[in-house]
Amino acid sequence: KRKIKARPPPPLNKPSKMMSFQNMLKDGYKHMSGLEEAVIKNIEACKQLSHITRTSLGPHGMNKLVINHLDRLMITSDAATVLTEMEVQHPAAKLVVMAAKTQEAELGDGTNLVVSLAGELLSNAEELIREGLHPSEIVEGYQKAVNKVLEIIPTLCLPGTEKIDIRNVADVTRAMKGPLAAKQYGYEGLLAPLVAQACIEVCPANAKNFNVDNVRVCKLIGGSVNKSSVVNGLILRRGCEGTVQRVVDAKVVVYGQGVDTAATETKGTVLIENAEQLESYSRSEEDKMEEYIKGIADSGAKVVVGNGAFGEMAMHFIERYGLLALKIPSKFELRRFCRATGAVALVKNDPPSPDDLGYVKSITVEEIGGSVVTIVRQDEKVGKIATVIIRGSTDNMMDDMERAVDDGVNSFKAITRDARLLPSASAVELELSKQLYEYGRKQTGLDQYAIAKFALSLEIVTRMLAENAGLNAESILPLLRAAHAAGNTSAGLDIEDGTVKDVAAECGCYDLFEVKYWAIKLAADAAITVLRVDQIIMAKQAGGPKTRSPGEEE
């Protein structure tokens, strides 16, 4: 018999290639994972960001020339401005930028410290990763270190500073000089008393309700910085509309639109057959406008403020009744004017009721350095707004001065919450570094290496202050370490002569406790967040074609 070979069983489905994570996603998605692709690349991005800002740290920090997407040129050493205008796109670097913006929004100072310290913490973490430590062990060590640092900082506060009198110009000036010197070195002695005076003038009975928006800045080109001054009131960079240029102790009416004849929403046709009808039509319009302006004058108001244009007929009757007409095109400025005068912005062109009127001590039109300005001075009991007038030779210089004044005003707000002061000039960071080293030596686990690196990272402030001032950081650091080892917790770097001094007693250099506390906390939190990331999944950007940058050829 012929043997019939049995057919082999049909082959099972061949196992397909394992589907990769990339294939699970839509086209255009990016996926990065692992130490080299995600963690190290994130650290590199944050390091590059910190290298940009750290050279601007301290009084001798270098300026950055930034041209934004609108072709606006800025020359500044303010880290918050640089980071805002750079429009950082890298997701990990954005975390550091967000930490810096939080510091800027809450305290107005210390943004450079946040970015520089976060970059240094990540740089030292990279060394530990390359030596074999897992990011989780580094995160645990950093968390222990930052908790210990936040315990130590309150013990370094200068005794007696918590009882500062915030109504005393001299005491507030002393606390403000540090933040202002970091932005405008050499002018802190001039700007600090001006900012302190402006802040104290607008400070309410409960100082914790202080509003930074009540201190305005007016930049007038010409003259020198020494001619800067403070005005208790609001300054508008325009003149009045009519011939009346000055009023004293006047009631004010404010309109949220222009002061003119009302226009109908739909088109209308008026048939005029003879001259008498034309004359009566014009006269009725004039009578209506006169009735309106007479109603304002009868209410006791001497000042008419409008958000839009004043019509010719309206100006005719305003002049006849001897009223001062003032146009404020900005709705934000109009809102501040209402807050300063206690007036209510009316939305209809009707005579005001007594409750809608505001009050000003005086409104005068003056010329300062060739610029015509309207100065609205106010009684303290009605509305508290102060304006710092900045004079200078260039717009860029005055812009930088304005940022310094803003930092000073934010510092005053921080003082109202917590007035404690710390020694400046890197004295605090070095003392924290010393005590953190001692704490790290007592730890038995692998986290002791991360704690030691955190302590080393705190020395970046001293290094950058010295390098930016043209000094040799390697020769100065041992001297400072020796001074702190001897028990001088206020020993810092005098950048003028490169010597070690008790900066609190001899130089009068102070930092606000709140600024330093939150800067270190936010920097550590940002670094820890970046180290916890092990995968990056980026979706395809939505929208149409990418817009061209200004000046870019097609």
Structure description:
The protein has 554 residues and is an alpha/beta fold. It is 46% helix and 16% strand. It has helices at 21-24, 34-54, 79-86, 91-107, 111-130, 135-152, 169-183, 188-202, 275-298, 312-320, 331-341, 395-417, 427-441, 447-457, 460-468, 473-485, 503-507, 513-531; strands at 30-33, 64-67, 73-76, 215-221, 229-231, 233-236, 246-255, 301-306, 324-327, 345-346, 358-368, 371-377, 386-392, 421-423, 491-494, 499-502, 510-512, 535-538. The strands form six sheets. Strands 6, 7, 8, 9, 10, 11 and 12 form a seven-stranded mixed sheet that branches. Strands 4-13-5 form a three-stranded mixed sheet, with helices on one face. A two-stranded antiparallel sheet has the order 1-18. β15 and β16 (499-502) form a beta hairpin. α5 (111-130) packs antiparallel against α14 and α7 crosses α8 (188-202). Mean pLDDT is 84; it is low at 549-554.
Question: Which properties best describe this structure?
Answer:
single chain; 7-stranded mixed sheet; globular; disordered C terminus
Topology (SSEs and partners):
Blueprint: H1 21-24, E1 30-33, H2 34-54, E2 64-67, E3 73-76, H3 79-86, H4 91-107, H5 111-130, H6 135-152, H7 169-183, H8 188-202, E4 215-221, E5 229-231, E6 233-236, E7 246-255, H9 275-298, E8 301-306, H10 312-320, E9 324-327, H11 331-341, E10 345-346, E11 358-368, E12 371-377, E13 386-392, H12 395-417, E14 421-423, H13 427-441, H14 447-457, H15 460-468, H16 473-485, E15 491-494, E16 499-502, H17 503-507, E17 510-512, H18 513-531, E18 535-538
Parallel strand pairs: 4-13, 7-8, 7-10, 8-9
Antiparallel strand pairs: 1-18, 2-3, 5-13, 6-12, 7-11, 11-12, 14-17, 15-16
